[in-house]
Structure formats: C-alpha cells, structure tokens
Design a protein that fits this description.
Elements lengths: L2 H7 L1 E3 H8 L3 H9 L6 E3 L4 E5 H22 L6 E4 L2 E4 L3 E6 L2 H17 L3 E5 L2 H14 L3 H7 L2 E4 L5 H17 L5 E6 L1 H6 L3 H13 L1 H4 L2 E8 L5 H10 L15
Parallel strand pairs: 6-10, 7-8, 7-9, 9-10
Antiparallel strand pairs: 1-3, 2-3, 4-5
Length: about 260
C-alpha cells in the first residue's frame, strides 16, 4: 500500500468522526470552526475530513478538561496562582513586554520560583543564554534549582522551529503531568528563541492562537509569553497582544517590564 493510500484511508468524514467522539455533527463543526478540533477541507465542496489521530488526541484533551474541572472545584485545591500581587486563574494565557535586561526578570523570576515552591511543574522556553541567566538568578534564592532540573520539576527547552512539533511537545508534556497527578503547570516563554530558531511571525501567531484555543485553556496551566521590545517589531507586538486576550483581564501595566 502506498503512503498516499494510507493517508487517504486515515481520513474520516464528519459522520464517522462524530460517531467516534460520541457527539453531534453540529458540535464537530463548531469545535473545528473554533480551532479546537483540527479538520481538513477537501474537494470542490470543501467537505470536512478528520484524522483519527486528531480525534483520539481530542478525546484525551476532553478527559483532561474533566480533570481540570475537578481540580478547580475541589475545595482543598487552589485554582489560581499569585504573581506579584495579582491573582491569576489557571487556564490563563498571558503576554508581557520588556525593554531592559532587568525587565526580563521582573515577572519571570517570581513566576518560576512561585511555581517550584508550590509544587507546580514549570517549563521555560528560551534561548540557552536566557536560560543560563534565569537559572543563575534562581540559584541565588533556591539552592536546589539544579536538582529541580534533574528531577523534572522545571523543564528547559530552546523551542522548535516547527510550530506543530512545539504544540505536540506541550500536549504530550501536559498529558504526562496530568497522568502523574500534578495539580498545576506553569509555562514561561521568553520569545526571543523564535528569532534564533527562524520561526516566522505568522507561524508564531498561528501557534499562539492554537495554543490559546486549545492547551492553554484545557489544562491547569498558567502560560506567560514575554517579548523583548528591543528585538520584535511593532507589528509582532501587536500580533502578540491579539493572541493573548487573557492579559486584559488583569492590570495591564503589571505586564510591562520596568
């Protein structure tokens, strides 16, 4: 069997997909239009086709959403984090901006330190240079930071040029944390890594939008993407603001590095 034949057989029509998800076709159309469920449009009539792998991933995410609801409703658990005097709900996808080296650390350090102290699993997506700066700063106030890295309490990555691979990385990491019973996640992205990896702004915005519509709100995670205004254009910063509308639920001046 050729690769083309395998690919064709793996595509399901909307009726078949609805049966697998035990949902109505109307729901599938709504989820796809909202970007929550990937689908392909083929032929002159632009008919919807679904990959089985996407449907199975959606089922897993849906189960994770149930776990999040239980997480938020359990009276013994906290459904928010505190960051520099701001109470931020899990499921928030935020952006921040800075134009000095000290500004880079203003929210980043308390965000990561608070996560480690609270037993959250933390992720830092940044260039190796920025990773080293932040880990050195954290080491001054948390002597066990190297053990945190070794034990996976904080995961360091330089990001990926392919936005689909990056989304899959987080999807797998979040589901793994969920299975381990970890009750809170924090993601800090210092977005200069995208320039180093050569990711185009359009692809970055597509990733941010997809993350915002999917993982960022489906899991008990607070995500903070910070942009160096010295490196990014005004158009890129405007795009970032459009992709992080949760930010406007909080005092915006707090997200401007000083």
């Amino acid at each position: 069997m050729s690769n083309n034949e395998s690919a064709a057989e793996s595509l399901l029509n909307i009726k078949q997909a609805a049966k697998i998800l035990n949902a109505s076709e109307i729901s599938l159309r709504r989820w796809s239009d909202a970007g929550k469920l990937p689908c392909m449009r083929i032929g002159v009539k632009r008919e919807r086709r679904y990959r089985l792998t996407d449907l199975l991933a959606y089922l897993e995410q849906d189960q994770a959403s149930v776990n999040i609801a239980a997480f938020e409703q359990a009276p013994s658990r906290i459904a928010h984090i505190d960051l520099e005097g701001i109470t931020i709900n899990y499921g928030s996808h935020l952006c921040a901006f800075y134009d000095t080296d000290l500004g880079r650390l203003k929210l980043a350090l308390p965000f990561l330190l608070g996560g480690l102290q609270s037993g959250n699993r933390c992720f830092l997506v940044a260039t190796t240079e920025v990773q080293a700066i932040m880990m050195n700063e954290l080491r001054d106030v948390r002597s066990c930071i190297d053990q945190d890295i070794q034990d996976g309490r904080i995961a360091l990555t330089e990001g990926m040029a392919n936005s689909t691979e990056l989304y899959t990385f987080f999807e797998n990491a979040f589901m793994d944390a969920n299975k381990q019973g970890i009750q809170g996640l924090r993601v800090l992205g210092d977005m200069a890594w995208t320039l180093q990896k050569g990711m185009e702004i359009a692809e970055l915005n597509d990733f941010e939008t997809r993350y915002n519509q999917g993982l960022g709100h489906r899991f008990p995670v607070v995500s903070l993407c910070q942009y160096d205004a010295r490196l990014f254009s005004g158009t890129a910063i405007l795009g970032a603001l459009k992709c992080h509308d949760d930010t406007f639920n909080y005092p915006f001046k707090q997200f401007l590095g000083a």
